[in-house]
Write a structure and sequence with these properties.
The complex is a heterodimer of chains A (340) and B (323). Chain A is α/β, with parallel strands linked by helices and 340 residues long. In chain A, 32% of the residues lie in helices and 24% in strands. The chains are: A alpha/beta (340), B mainly alpha (323).
Chain lengths: 340, 323
């Protein structure tokens, strides 16, 4: 039921009235987490993502924020079909892709790509930059050999702001920011429409982050890209996203337009999260109240009934302990999963 | 524009030459590796040019000059520098000719066993599941069976020859490559660049051979070279037991085997082929450690940083002296 609400058509924030590019309905992802019982018959599952629903419209950026282990990367990987969904459905351009086979997945890969978190680990140290960026073209038959790929690779390297002779060299000759540019060039090689950016700047120096974020925004404006931007840095997310979803322990607790979430957070977890962001003005910073809740995050192997935040929420009532709060639209386009 | 774009994907001859030059320079800097490489070159030259170098034919018998000691002993003569064996054959010539068999067996076995073991290890590590269990149990079973015994049975049934020796040693030696490759693949396949390749739509063959295998070169190279040394010794052991190379052909192992009966009367019969084996193994080990360093991009980076630091230190000292 909550999925229906979250997907209601008058999600008019910024109002692109077009069809959503990506639609996620009641997505649930479980990982096997060992066995229990005397004979080891009972399988235990880590409830990584539980009944999550949202839309992503063409040309927008949806920020996905949450603490480590809240399931944000898992959602990104489930959309890219890297991890299987235990339940729920994923649509791409109104076509269901939750269970399509490998043969149909390949053309889909041309439309959806991933930008990785760690630019040091995501480039093959034994391949030249040219080969890294040309590989998608060759694999998908857009170029038969290096010579045919050359024009496109040059243009891509230039577009992400790398010197043209970068193609010769190996990844270890580049800095973190440059490597992330290479990763972006590789993701763009196939002209995708949708990009999952899995914490693309969290491994970079603060001074470099702005450059990469600006590059991503320029590319979005130029190529009409759609981003699912996964991050835990609230300042970065605020800068790049149009709408933001806040995750806690495998569920989306709040989803709204960027400004309404930052100015009027409704979920107690969101409030605590936002109060943790420092403000550059010391006077304002001193006057702010830092909300910190005691308590532990729920055990992902055996989440309690009801709201996942109940163990830390100061306002938890009986309803919170027994029933899962549905996503409700409190304001236009502002969804919250909270009984209070 | 065209000319600069051309350069991006093509490696020019000039660049290749430059790279070779850098490689040789690095070899020169690593003195141990350099000595090892020189020794290997000398051994290869010896094997190729054996008829030119050897003073006698290795099988020529001279029964009048049996068990002659080396030239520098009181009874020695310069006609047989390393002395002669119990049939009056020249030991020096036999050592020179023996290098042929030892090097051929070593190289072929390392290649055959290495390719087979590596491919199975890649398949097991990448696909996991049932294929993995099957291959690993196969390896476990074969490792559990004593290799030398298996070799002896096969050789006794088929009959010893150069080719059977190579086959038997390959059959006995591929498991170590399989196991090592599998364990390395298990860690490499979890890296982000392998995931990136899969998300880009690369098929498994491309992921395995373009992304995983190149990142295994340094451990594989080290293993192959250590195995080479082991194979040379294993061939010597088989020949020693009489199931390896058959006379009149010669190998170092065969000569050691034949010489053991005369160990107390004619020490030179076992010593010189033995020294040849040790020198080969030593040279290969020296080169192996150098190759491991240069084939690993991370090690190269460290080396580069060390050189830069040394250069800076030198520069600073010079400046200090100037002031």
């Amino acid at each position: 039921m909550d999925s229906k609400l979250a997907l209601s058509k008058h999600d008019s924030v910024g109002a692109p009235t077009s069809e959503p590019l990506v639609k996620v309905e009641g997505l649930t992802v479980h990982f096997e987490g060992g066995r229990a019982g005397f004979w080891g018959r009972k399988r235990l599952f880590v409830h990584a993502v539980e009944n999550v629903s949202f839309y992503i419209f063409p040309g927008e950026t949806l920020g996905l924020v949450g603490e480590s282990g809240s399931g944000k990367s898992t959602i990104g990987r489930a959309i890219l079909r890297r991890v299987p969904a235990a339940a729920g459905r994923i649509f791409y351009k109104s076509r269901e892709i939750t269970h399509i086979g490998t043969a149909n997945l390949r053309p889909l890969r041309r439309n959806m790509q991933l930008v990785f978190q760690d630019p040091y680990a995501s480039l093959n140290p034994r391949m030249r930059i040219f080969d890294i960026v040309a590989e998608p073209l060759i694999v998908h038959g857009l170029a038969r050999n290096n010579k045919e790929a050359q024009g496109r690779v040059c243009a891509l390297l230039q577009r992400v702001g790398l010197p043209p002779d970068a193609g010769h060299r190996y990844p270890h000759a580049f800095s973190g920011g440059q490597r992330q540019r290479i990763g972006i060039a590789r993701a763009l090689a196939l002209n995708p429409e949708f990009i999952v950016a899995d914490e693309p700047v969290s491994a970079l120096d603060v001074s470099i982050r702005a450059q990469i974020i600006n590059l991503m925004q320029d590319l979005q404006a130029e190529l009409g890209l759609t981003y699912l931007f996964i991050a835990h840095d609230l300042a970065v997310v605020r800068h790049i996203s149009r709408r933001i979803a806040i995750m806690y322990a495998g569920k989306i607790v709040e989803l709204a337009n960027r400004d309404s979430i930052y100015e009027n957070p409704l979920h107690p977890y969101t409030k605590a999260l936002l109060s943790a962001v420092p403000v550059p003005d010391p006077k304002v910073q001193r006057s702010r109240v830092r909300i910190a809740y005691a308590g532990e995050t729920p055990n992902p192997l055996n989440p309690p009934p009801g709201c996942r935040f109940q163990s830390r929420c100061p306002r938890a009532s009986d309803a919170c302990r027994t029933q899962d709060p549905p996503m409700k639209e409190r304001d236009t386009g502002h969804f919250v999963a909270c009984w209070q | 524009m065209e000319s600069s774009a051309e350069k991006i994907w093509k490696i020019t001859w000039q660049e290749r030459f430059q790279r070779l030059q850098n490689l040789l320079l690095e070899l020169w800097r690593d003195k141990a590796g350099f000595i090892g490489m020189m020794l290997i070159c000398a051994l290869l030259f010896m094997a190729f040019a054996a008829p030119l170098l050897a003073p006698h034919h290795p099988a020529d018998q001279d029964l009048m000059a049996r068990l002659k000691p080396p030239a520098w002993s009181p009874n020695g003569s310069w006609n047989h520098i390393f002395g002669t064996d119990h049939l009056g054959r020249d030991v020096l010539s036999r050592v020179i000719y023996g290098s042929r068999v030892s090097l051929i067996v070593g190289a072929t076995v390392v290649f055959a066993a290495g390719v087979f073991g590596t491919v199975l290890g890649l398949i097991a590590g990448y696909f996991r599941g049932r294929v993995d269990s099957f291959i690993m149990r196969w390896i476990d079973t074969q490792v559990a069976f004593p290799g030398l015994l298996l070799a002896l049975i096969i050789l006794a049934v088929i009959g010893p020859s150069l080719i059977t020796v190579i086959l038997v040693l390959s059959f006995n030696g591929w498991m170590v490559y399989g196991r090592m490759t599998r364990s390395a693949v298990l860690s490499v396949r979890e890296t982000a660049y392998v995931e990136a390749a899969e998300i880009l739509g690369c098929n498994s063959r491309r992921v395995i051979f373009r992304h995983i295998l190149p990142n295994l070169t340094s451990p594989l190279l080290t293993l192959a070279i250590l195995e080479f040394a082991r194979i040379v010794l294993a061939e010597a052991a088989l020949s020693f037991l009489g199931l390896g190379i058959q006379p009149p052909a010669t190998s170092w192992g065969l000569d050691v085997a034949a010489g053991k009966d005369y160990m107390f009367r004619a020490w030179w019969l076992v010593t010189f082929p033995g020294i040849a084996i040790s020198i080969t193994v030593l040279a290969i080990n020296l080169v192996a450690s150098w190759m491991r360093l240069i084939s690993d991009p991370q090690e190269r980076e460290k080396q580069f940083a060390r050189q830069m630091a040394a250069l800076k230190r030198k520069h600073r000292r010079k400046e200090g002296a100037g002031a």
